[in-house]
Recover the amino acids of this structure.
């Protein structure tokens, strides 16, 4: 499946996040720009609505103009408007601004000098309660084009007093009376933006403008933003794909190598050019794991092949002996010799099998070692007694100088270790040589040394003598019942006791095996 | 036919020696590489059975040194059955390769084939006039009639027949028919030759005075 590929998933998530970011950015930019334009427009509305509302005044004899502190040019010429409407809820803040605008408008548009005041839309069928006169300079702010500002003025009761040329027919009437005087929030009506200002007298003015052009501009902007976003997204995805591919490539190398290794070729390694990054380090770790795996696999193979090899010789002997004996009738003595040879071969196989089993158990950690206090020197003297006939047969002397060495562990297994070491010391000795065993306790460590006067161990063999089936003399296979596992088993037993077994030798000067055990 | 066995496992050496002797071969045994190499270099064996793992000088080394002076057929015995070991053995100059454990009949068959090939023959059957020698079954017939021979007589006939048409010296016969432990009385050979003439006809073996014996056509 395509979405099970890390690269695709990475790409998908990357794409989604990128898309969300771009969309967020685009929408925010669009909204900000739209807001700025509308604010600007609203500012224009505010600039126009002040004079408009000031131009709307109650009829003479009515209430005073709703900005009594404000020198309204119209009141001078028309007199105080009649009517009983009093402004209430007048807000000082807005009034102040209006004052400023009105002031300017008033001064700039002094209609007795600047020509006749603009008087429009005065249907006033019900009598002249409210008058609306707009100074000409104010009127210039409203054009007659469809996209220019327009205004509509209503008297109390929703009677339309005036409207500019550009005002659309369908401007809805003002809301029912009772609306708080002052400007309402700007509203959108189709492509028209309008702001309604209720005057205290009950009437109101509306300033509006078609913003179709601005909206079209914004739409174009939105499309441009979307197109730019699309291009950026495409570029980003391409870049992301490239990055993902680059990031995945070492993983693909690793996986390809692992596949080859799984198929059985343990010599394969991951080629990691850059070992500093995370994947490089992973590759290095995997490579070293593979190397160890290969080594241990080779070791295991060698061990199995060696074990099989060790079994071949006694089996060959048994086959050759029995086939020869059975080829014709024999005397009792010949049969006896054959049976004896077969017995020797069988004993040898038993010994090998026991050694292999013991090693396997020690390897698996299943060998349960007893932990009891015992005296290592007693174990040593027992072993010396056991091996004495063998040493005598070769004219060897065993010198044993071991003081009491109290230890904790398995005396039987430790006896096997000592026997192995003694056996080796006798086997690889010269005629009439000697074997020296010394022991001491240093600090918390029990040290036992077995030294012989043999030819010693060659330097190239020394590091390998504890390996399974390793023989310094390749041909000593099976001679005198040695399996080639003795030292390996000894080392395993000693290590199971938490100790160490080491060999030191100078060619021609004998060899010394040193056993160290925690006391 | 005289064969050298180089094998360090005493029980195996003993049983192989006995079995091959019972097959009618003269057998010398060597328990280590040094003795084996010495024997192989100083006697003309018809074949050498050589173990690879040997004390002192190993099988590879014996083979390498032997090949400098002799073409004796060598059959390697080894517990290593890896293909690379076999390849190495054959490339070093071994003529055959047997992996332990082996069956004795197979070993014998391989030895016979080895000896036959080294004498330039391809068949187990050797014919000299109306006498046919089956080296596989170790039987001799004359005019279709089986003739009973002792093991030593058979060995003598087989050796002469393998080299038929050529004069075989008495020394060569002694070297190939008796092992190093046998007391080789000078007239023992004459006794065998005379017995064979009684069984296979007086003119089967011709005597070349001062040279040796010959079967088959005159050279």
């Amino acid at each position: 499946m395509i979405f099970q590929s890390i690269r695709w998933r990475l790409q998908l998530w990357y794409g989604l996040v990128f898309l969300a970011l771009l969309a967020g950015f685009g929408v925010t930019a669009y909204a900000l720009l739209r807001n700025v334009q509308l604010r600007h427009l609203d500012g224009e509305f505010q600039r126009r609505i002040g004079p408009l509302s000031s131009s709307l005044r109650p009829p003479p004899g009515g209430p005073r103009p709703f900005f009594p502190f404000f020198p309204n040019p119209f009141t001078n010429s028309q007199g105080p408007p009649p009517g009983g409407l009093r402004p209430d809820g007048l807000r000082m803040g807005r009034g102040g601004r209006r004052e400023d605008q009105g002031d300017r408008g008033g001064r700039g548009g002094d209609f007795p000098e600047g020509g006749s005041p603009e008087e429009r839309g005065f249907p006033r069928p019900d009598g002249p309660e409210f008058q609306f006169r707009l100074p000409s300079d104010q009127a210039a702010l409203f054009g007659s084009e469809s996209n220019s500002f327009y205004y509509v003025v209503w008297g109390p009761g929703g009677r339309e007093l005036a409207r500019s040329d550009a005002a659309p027919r369908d401007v809805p009437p003002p809301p029912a009376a009772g609306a708080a005087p002052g400007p309402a929030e700007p509203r959108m009506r189709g492509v028209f933006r309008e702001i309604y200002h209720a005057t205290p007298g009950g009437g109101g003015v509306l300033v509006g403008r078609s913003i179709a052009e601005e909206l079209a501009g914004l739409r174009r902007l939105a499309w441009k933003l979307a197109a730019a976003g699309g291009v950026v997204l495409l570029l980003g995805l391409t870049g992301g794909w490239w990055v993902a591919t680059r990031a995945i490539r070492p993983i693909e190398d690793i996986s390809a190598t692992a596949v080859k290794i799984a198929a059985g070729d343990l010599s394969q390694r991951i080629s990691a050019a850059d070992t500093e990054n995370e994947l490089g380090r992973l590759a290095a770790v995997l490579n070293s794991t593979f190397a160890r795996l290969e080594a241990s696999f080779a070791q295991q193979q060698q061990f199995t092949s060696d074990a099989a090899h060790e079994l071949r010789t006694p089996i060959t002997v048994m086959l050759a002996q029995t086939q020869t004996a059975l080829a014709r009738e024999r005397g009792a003595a010949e049969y006896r010799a054959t049976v004896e040879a077969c017995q020797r071969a069988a004993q040898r196989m038993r010994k090998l099998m026991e050694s292999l089993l013991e090693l396997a158990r020690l390897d698996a950690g299943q060998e349960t070692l007893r932990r009891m206090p015992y005296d290592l020197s007693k174990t040593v003297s027992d072993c010396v007694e056991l091996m004495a006939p063998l040493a005598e047969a070769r004219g060897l002397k065993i010198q044993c100088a071991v003081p009491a060495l109290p230890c904790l562990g398995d005396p039987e297994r430790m006896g096997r270790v000592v026997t192995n070491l003694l056996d080796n010391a006798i086997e690889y000795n010269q005629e009439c040589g000697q074997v020296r065993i010394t022991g001491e306790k240093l600090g918390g460590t029990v040290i036992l040394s077995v030294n012989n006067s043999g030819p010693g161990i060659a330097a190239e063999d020394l590091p390998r003598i504890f390996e399974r089936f390793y023989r310094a003399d390749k041909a000593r296979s099976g001679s005198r019942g040695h399996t080639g596992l003795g030292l390996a088993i000894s080392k395993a037993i000693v290590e199971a006791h938490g100790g160490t077994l080491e060999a030191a030798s100078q060619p021609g000067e004998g060899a010394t095996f040193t056993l160290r055990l925690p006391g | 036919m005289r064969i050298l066995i180089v094998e360090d496992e005493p029980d195996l050496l003993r049983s192989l020696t006995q079995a091959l002797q019972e097959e009618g071969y003269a057998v010398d045994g060597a328990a280590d590489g040094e003795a084996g190499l010495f024997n192989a270099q100083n006697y003309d064996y018809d074949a050498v059975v050589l173990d690879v793992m040997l004390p002192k000088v190993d099988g590879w080394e014996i083979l390498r040194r032997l090949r400098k002076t002799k073409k004796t057929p060598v059959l390697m015995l080894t517990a290593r059955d890896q293909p690379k070991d076999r390849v190495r053995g054959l490339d070093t100059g071994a003529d055959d390769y047997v992996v332990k454990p082996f069956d004795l009949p197979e070993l014998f068959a391989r030895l016979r084939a080895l000896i036959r090939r080294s004498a330039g023959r391809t068949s187990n059957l050797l014919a000299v006039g109306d006498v046919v020698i089956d080296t596989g079954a170790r039987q001799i017939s004359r005019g279709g009639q089986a003739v009973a021979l002792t093991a030593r007589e058979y060995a003598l006939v087989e050796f002469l027949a393998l080299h038929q048409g050529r004069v075989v010296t008495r020394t060569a016969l002694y070297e190939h028919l008796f092992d190093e432990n046998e007391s080789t009385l000078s007239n023992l050979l004459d006794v065998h030759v005379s017995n064979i003439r009684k069984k296979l006809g007086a003119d089967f073996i011709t005597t070349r005075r001062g040279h040796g014996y010959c079967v088959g056509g005159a050279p």
